[in-house]
Amino acid sequence: MNKKVNIKRDGPESRRRIINVAVRLFAQHGYAGTGMREISAEAEVNLAMINYFFGSKKGLLKEILDTFYAKYIEIALRELEQEGQMEIKLERFIHGTISFFDTYKDYLLVTINELPHDDPEILEHKASWAQKMIAVLEREICRPLAFEKGTVISSTVLGPLLTATMASRFLFAPVMDQVRPENIPKESLEEYSEMISTSLLKMIS
Amino acid sequence: MNKKVNIKRDGPESRRRIINVAVRLFAQHGYAGTGMREISAEAEVNLAMINYFFGSKKGLLKEILDTFYAKYIEIALRELEQEGQMEIKLERFIHGTISFFDTYKDYLLVTINELPHDDPEILEHKASWAQKMIAVLEREICRPLAFEKGTVISSTVLGPLLTATMASRFLFAPVMDQVRPENIPKESLEEYSEMISTSLLKMIS
DNA sequence: TGGTTCACTAAACGTTTGTTTAAGATTGTT
DNA sequence: AACAATCTTAAACAAACGTTTAGTGAACCA
Known about the structure:
2 copies of one chain form a homodimer.
Chain A: H1 12-29, H2 36-42, H3 47-54, H4 57-80, H5 86-103, H6 105-113, H7 120-149, H8 155-171, H9 173-179, H10 189-203
The first copy, chain A, binds a DNA duplex through residues 3, 6, 8-11, 14, 35-37, 45-52, 56-57.
């Protein structure tokens, strides 16, 4: 009758809990610096459950990276692949991305910090996502820019540049939070988003 | 008579070799992902020599980070702390930094990827270096910018933004090298440096 | 010549690592 | 009630981890 007498046996709930904990710990101590026992303890699941759900520690990382890349490219497609003035589309893309980075800041940190992770299996996924992003930027930003304004900038430069610029607040947050003087509060996300947006738009003008 | 009959006993030479190998491996596999046996093997020194010279693995990382931070702040002081027009000083700082990043790209990757490394001892060093950099930027860029042009941008935003933008090529290199189509060659460092420089100068204009 | 310092080595220390295994519990289906 | 599928467990595995120790020479200075 009462289905929830026993707290255990949550099924996909455990799976989700593992991911959430893993993302947080990977962002804090890095992938290699986080032990599976630490994850299982904080997620309150048995150690073996991680391998049961994800096959291996690497499988867990792969799923985290894929989740981030998929959402990122989805925003790019949604905001850039439509009719309209390029500057306006770019501005929406920037605001959307920064808002996404803020919500998924741990995912962002894991993704960036594992960029040099040279495992062939992981590298393949990263490259295919990056490929798509570069293609969108080439089509929607670089080509109009060269055609309308004569400004030539390679998409393989613009891609990293855009991402790094938008991510700067989150990337350096662990250090900057230590540095910022107490009397000067952190800028709000809206202020930051506006600054980056106007800066980047000036950049391509 | 012949002092070099025995190849061993190189003294500080071994020390330098350990650092060079460690920087490369830390950049490739991360700090936690690199074993001391891997370092000692590639540097062709005994395992115990690392602890002999640096006290611990953490001591080795600390020295690598300190080397990078010291050189970076030295460039900032040299190029920004002098008389002259702000834009020209900033341009020189950007070119100097990018050239430095290129020469020390492995140091750069280690530094950025270990940003979340929350060891108290490491964090202290990072924060004190960042503090200095922020102070220079505040004095030499942000204040003139607000005074002369009315453009208000916080140094705690500008610092990360500048560094992330200049580092973007090196940060994403492991992935972008996979993505770039064969027929399109990588931009030269000079081209990249020029692009970033003009972009950033437009940004604050 | 004896002694101190510096550079180096091999071996072992106790932990911790990711993964596997075999068994058990719970669930929905027949 | 029996079945299969799903979820969970404790225990063990070999391998790798960072660190320590005790000892060996070479170099230099007294």
